[in-house]
Amino acid sequence: MTGRLLKGLLAVVAFSLCGLLMGIAATSDSTAPQSASKTTFYKDVLPILQNNCQSCHRAGEVAPMALMTYDDARPWAVAIKAAVLTQKMPPWYADPQYGHFSNERKLSTQDIKTLVTWVNGGAQPGDPKDAPAPVKFVDGWNIGTPDKVIEMPVAYNVPAEGTVDYQYMVIPAGFAQDTWVRAAEVRPGNRALVHHVIAFIRSPESQWMRDAKPGEFFVPKKTEQDDSAKKSDKSDKSDKKDDESANSNPEKQQTSNEPRRQRRRGEIGDLLVGYAPGIQPLDLTSDQAKLIKAGSDIVLQLHYTANGTAGADKTKIGLIFAKQPPRLRNVTIGASNPSFKIPPNDGNYEVKSQVRLEETVTLADLMPHMHFRGKDFLYQVIYPDGRTETLLSVPKYDFNWQLGYTLEKPLVLPKGTRIECTAHFDNSVNNPYNPDPNKEVKWGDQTWEEMMIGWFSVAVDPKASTAGLVKFEKPGTRTPPDQPDTKAGGVASGTSGGSNTGSTR
Ligand code: HEC
User: Fold this and answer.
1) If we measure between CA atoms, which residue out of 502, 451, 412 comes closest to residue 249?
2) Given the CA of residue 105, which atom of ligand 1 is nearest to it?
3) CA dihedral (475, 476, 479, 482) positive or negative
4) Which pLDDT belongs to residue 36?
5) How many Cα atoms sit within 13 Å of 348 on the Cβ side?
6) What per-residue confidence (pLDDT) applies to 265?
7) Which atom of ligand 1 is nearest to the CA of 76?
8) Are the folds of 144-324 and 327-505 the same?
């Protein structure tokens, strides 16, 4: 009885929905040609391209073609429709269920509709008088005209073929005074050959890469890597890896040679800015800045990939200074796990990493990093009271788009909070990027090896030392932070009870 009634009701609903849809179809049909022809490039489409596409789609930027003018865009009309309907463009990978990000790249439903209507209506130009004023881009930079440019003094010659070891170059930053940087951008000299660049800040007291002559290319010695690998129980992390994640695992830094031990005692080396396809430049809110101490160096890590044609690269970095000392210092830390072994043909291998905050900090942004086998990445925080919150979920990680996610509202995380990252790797034949599903895969620099780093930036008191800001923990550790911890020698004080032994979900 009720079943039939329900079916009847459903039929009525379906029928009226149908009518409704037909009605819509009918009305839009009768107006379609008109409204489509009314939707023009200059009036409707150009503003959308300006706001959402031209940062990448203009000469000298990451996209292969410009979308600045009607003539630029017209041949791409059909491709534009497809790219926005599938949400391939603009590139953005965060699951909208979690978090709000100030650098979100997403078209509104209305904008998608406008683009599609324009294409369906024959991609009409319309009247150039309707065009908005062109956006004023600073040629060669997305951060605006830099206050200072630091450039490699010599070019690197990338061969036509073969694997190029990560190259490092120490460049004196040239500051006689402590300098606060609000924005920074890496500009590769040759995008076709540069896979990625990371610029680290090396403070004067740091011994990291002291063997390297400033201004010359440097590859950390293989023997050193082997030695440290042998000494380390997690034997699969190379020396070079330490460099990429200079702050990501002090435990490992301790196990190897003297320079690194010294580095650990001092301030941690900060990551200034990175370049990889899709990465947005560092562009901090007005109350935050990165500190480059007087006498510091910039250490560039350069990953070149041969592409069949030899060529040279001279990468540079642009800096914009903070107008005044900031309220908060921005420091980037990596929660990495270097000790995984992904079995051959495993399509969903889980790797976790975890840090515990030893101070109360403000979380500013997140950037997951994996290589070709990276499948998904999740950031969660576990508060001292046991509450768990998902900050970012990237359900379909794409190695080609190394995106950073800036929290719309910076999040205060009390001392004792844990940041837990969970990644999955697809080492199966179903992963089209997988270079070899039959291989066991460990940590390594090259893209056919893997990495697992949950980079995150925190904002802290500018006067506070950043040494010991976080503690690197075994994933899954849930000891209450305010109870004595045999390993860390934590401070015993009043406990909050046994409620914080696990996550809430
Ligand atoms: C962050 C940089 C970036 C932004 C923003 C961006 N694009 Fe792209 N776009 C690229 C890159 C890089 C490629 C080439 C690589 C690729 O296809 O993934 C591309 C490719 C394309 C293609 C070719 C797709 C294909 O299947 O061959 C179209 C069409 C396109 N973009 C349209 C747009 C439109 C429209 C917007 C704005 C709504 C936009 N893009 C925003 C970087 C960007």
Assistant:
1) 451
2) 5
3) positive
4) 61
5) 2
6) 35
7) 29
8) yes
Q: What is the pLDDT of residue 12?
A: 38
Give the residues surrounding ligand 1 with Cβ less than 6 Å away: 52-53, 55-57, 62-64, 76, 79-80, 83-84, 89-91, 105, 107, 278
Q: 342: which DSSP letter?
A: B
Tokens of 303: 């990953």
The residue type at 505: R
Task: Fold for 144-324, please state it.
Answer: Jelly Rolls (2.60.120)
386: number of CA atoms within 13 Å, CB side? Answer: 13
Q: Ligand 1 atom closest to Cα of 90?
A: 41
Q: Which stretches of the chain drop beneath a pLDDT of 50?
A: 1-34, 223-268, 481, 484-505
Which amino acid does the sequence have at 162? G
58 C-alpha to ligand 1 centroid (Å): 11
How many angstroms separate the alpha carbon of residue 312 from the centre of ligand 1?
26
- Which stretches within 53-105 are classed as H helix? 70-73, 77-85
Return the best residue to mutate from 55, 57, 68, 195 for the ligand 1 pocket (most ligand atoms within 8 A of CB).
57
pLDDT at 445: 77
Q: Where are the domains of the chain?
A: 39-130, 144-324, 327-505
Asked if residue 252 lies in contact with residue 356, where contact means CB atoms within 8 angstroms, the answer is no
Residue 200 in tokens: 């680290």
Atom 25 (ligand 1): residue with closest C-alpha? Answer: 79
Closest residue by Cα to residue 292 from 262, 325, 314, 316? 325
Q: Residue 482 — φ and ψ, nearest 5°?
A: -100, 20
Instruction: Pick the residue whose CA is nearest to atom 13 on ligand 1.
Output: 63
pLDDT score recorded for residue 10: 41
Contact assessment for residue 117 and residue 36, using Cβ atoms and an 8 Å cutoff: yes
Find, among 468, 470, 469, 495, the residue nearest to 480 by Cα.
Answer: 495
| Topology at the third CATH level for domain 327-505 | Jelly Rolls (2.60.120)
